[in-house]
Amino acid sequence: MALDRYATLMTVVETGSLTRAAEQLGCTQSAVSHCLDTLESELGFTILRRSRAGVMLTDEGERLLPAVRSFLGAAEQLRQTASSIRGLESGTVRIGAFTSVAVHWLPPILKEFQRDYPRVDFRLLNGDYHDVEQWLANGSVDVGFVALPSPVNCEFIPLMEDRLLAILPLHSRFEHYPKFPLVECETEPFISLLKSSDHDARRALEAAGVNPNVRFYTKDDYAVIAMVEQGLGMSIMPELLLKGRQYDLQILPLVPEAKRTIGLGIAAGRKAGPATRRFADYVVRYVRSQNRNTETRPEDIRYV
Question: How much is the pLDDT for 51?
Fold first, then answer.
């Protein structure tokens, strides 16, 4: 079927390798290669360049890809709707999430959803804010967790406000401070996420008129935490990310206070399939059942 061939193409593009795509699809590499050859023959042009280093889209393939994503998305919505009419909720929900949501929210949400709808499959993509926004914009995911406001043109559901906190090495000069003045970021060595990802800290600092003394950039939240633990500087992190773990850090509320708003983006909006919509309902119910105002407890995180 043409649908299967386009789905195989998308898997190859996402994995960047015929071998990895074959492993994910549960078939042989030669079967994947034959499928792509057939698709290119039908279309009349080359879609992929293949080499030992992997695969790369041709210019024609790049032009084709948005239409392929739209075709596969529409096919999945059709499948979910047909299943809903039969009374069998099924389908595949593709989720994009950043670290704190992937660690703290998704496991219990998925467990509950799978218990009620075992026929629904999931594909999870983890990245930073920028990654998730790109996936929502190009249709790579059906739902994505983002920090609001977001520039992506899709439906958004605000979920929760999450405090931002200062994280500092143990025994810093702020060890007896009840709160961390944001203005001190101008003198303290600051460890930052990449500019495309660091919406939270950047917005808080810009709102306070503070220009941080950035000494290091990284894309990984937990790399930032590890660097702070080693005394390389301080940073600003969301409370949700810090919960439930033991760190050798000093953690302080900010002055002035700062928060992020976590939202759920639904790429297809009102046209989303029933399984996608039902999953969004489970997300909203789970998050809103949590105590939004619960602060990080001493037993959750090691303080000085």
Answer: 81
